[in-house]
Design goal:
Layout: E1 3-6, E2 11-16, E3 22-26, H1 34-47, E4 50-54, H2 67-80, E5 83-85, E6 94-97, E7 104-109, H3 116-128, E8 134-140, H4 150-161, E9 168-174, E10 183-189, E11 200-201, E12 207-217, H5 221-238, E13 244-251, E14 258-267, E15 272-278, H6 285-301, H7 308-313, H8 315-320, E16 324-329, H9 334-347, E17 350-356, E18 359-365
Parallel strand pairs: 3-4, 7-8, 11-16, 12-13
Antiparallel strand pairs: 1-2, 2-17, 4-6, 5-6, 8-10, 9-10, 12-14, 14-15, 16-18, 17-18
Amino acid sequence: CLFRLCTTCPRAYFRPRQLSTMFRIDGSILEGGGQILRNAFACCGILGRELTIDNIRGKRSPPGLRAQHTQGIVLVNAMCNGVLEGAAVGSTSVHFVPSALRSGEFRADTGTAGSVALLTQVSLPCLLFAPAQANLRLQGGTNADMAPQVDYIQHVLLPTLTQMGVAATLGIERRGYFPRGQGVVTLTATPLTAPLRPITLMEPGTVTSVEGVAVASKLKKSIAERAIRAAKEELRRTMKGVPVNVEVIIDDSAADPGMGVVLFARTSTGCLLGGDGLGKRGKPAEEVGADAARALSEAVSAGVCVDDYMQDQLIIFMALAAGRSSYLSRPLTLHTQTAIHIVTMITGASFSTEQRGANVVVTCDGIGYFPKPA
């Protein structure tokens, strides 16, 4: 095992025994899916470390790369001017030799409804360390199942990352839904001029407002309005007296009809927590809105500072930051455990977890990475 894991309650430590310039990872460990690829490629692309991943998505059926995973690693390889072998749909092994990160215009198209939000997860860390501004154009599913919706990235993740010195903008040009996708987003980020700052999210505070978006593509406006009414009814039960403002977005540019609701709560201590609901054929609009409200209410009522999407998205940024970061979350998802495992292995950052009642404190001593001048 590459790690020393102390399980003495209530704290666990994740520390690498030694760092390498070349890594070989079993893609079936822990979450056994795309999370391994995204974190490993982003870390190795930034740090310039050679990478081989075998048994890719070994816990998925079917195993191997799908279109969105293939496009994500091809995108990082292009941004790093690297050499990549095995990047084809169905492949269970890839080999990646990065060179230096570069600026420019880069594109990725899943060709499916595969999540563009997950393309941002693998590419955004690399954008931050490019020598000059790079611009990404990403195509696929903007509101997809089993992933954050792009509105979550836009309204929750990116604003939270500003606390670490990240200045990034995500634009939504066209929505994309199952089955064809064809949504388009743009992602730009100002390159860092110093290491990322550590982040501390330990005081939940009280909710001061709830905001959100309800998107209906090629559907009647009344469908989005029904979803909002259901969401507000749910929130009145769980967050009495909190003002709720949800924007209706009507869109006719998508290839397929679809809808999504993303809600986010602002707290008195500056935390942002999100919850979402996704439309499907035969699913009532009221259920979509209620799903989003319940997800948000559960995060708020848990008394935490990050929601379940945020807890794994922050890991790579905490590892690269200069200093000690920490956040209070619900019990770690398998995605988060996997992110910690992979990021610790490659970066050498130290993570610890400590039980805090029903919740968990995640602490990281980051490596303070910043590229040396050429």
